[in-house]
């Protein structure tokens, strides 16, 4: 398994020669991976509880390493953020997501694709213009996209983040607060930012069946979101019981392993054809 050292090098055990430790520059590896087309766009469907219909999909990146197989984002996103490589990766994810929108359009399907943004993206003054260029080039509407931002990404530099978000929002793209409840959220900011969606972190959703405290947090968060005029999405729906709990609490949309694990983007249409809501 790959391990990230403090100095930013990635260290992994070779299964062939267990005694030796290889140390490579992860940044070089990431750059090479982009050149060699080793990143893959995975998506996880977002389902509307009332209608049972697929209304969106979250873009989640995977790194298909020639030797190590699927490398999960937790192993390289934090490093990509530290080094600024994330900006390149975000552009790649946006392009891939746009391509997905186009192929869904061609099939007569309109879905919102959610893309994760990092602090570095919010500090990138060029992002709104680059995003607009991409939409024009691909003849897509900004309304086809939702951008997910964590509370901590906003809190790193609230003033600058607010500027970027306002510019993106003015273009017609939707904004979502991701992992809600886990950051240093300031409710005052939630009120001020031009957000459309609040996403309840999966840590509160996973054990809702057995944890009364989680149920109370989720119920209150749904009410808070609705009182602020926001759409509320729950991630980490792993069972039919939790599906029904959330539906009865008027949660708007759900995402989770119970409906689907993240799947390669080119399999989404096929998945949608066999999806039946409980
Ligand atoms: P996230 O944005 O909170 O994404 C949700 C994570 O929860 C995904 O992990 C997803 O696979 C997982 N998940 C979804 N449903 C369930 C469920 O029912 N149960 C459980 N236990 N987990 C579930 P993933 O794909 O490993 O991504 C981890 C994190 O990496 C993401 O968390 C996000 O912060 C980051 N990430 C992934 N792709 C990108 C990307 O393209 N750009 C950026 N900036 N970050 C990304
Ligand atoms: Ca997310
Ligand atoms: Ca999340
Ligand atoms: Ca997360």
UniProtKB/TrEMBL annotation:
- The reply to whether Nuclease figures as a keyword in the UniProt entry is no
Annotated EAL domain residues: 23-276
- This chain belongs to the protein called EAL domain-containing protein
Full-length numbering of the shown residues: 511 to 788 of 805
Organism in which the protein naturally occurs: Rugamonas brunnea
| MF-aspect GO terms | cyclic-guanylate-specific phosphodiesterase activity
Provide the organism lineage as a comma list.
Bacteria, Pseudomonadati, Pseudomonadota, Betaproteobacteria, Burkholderiales
List this protein's GO terms for biological process: signal transduction
Give a Gene Ontology cellular component term annotated to this protein: membrane
Q: Which UniProt keywords apply?
A: Membrane, Transmembrane, Transmembrane helix
The UniProt record lists the keyword Cell cycle: no
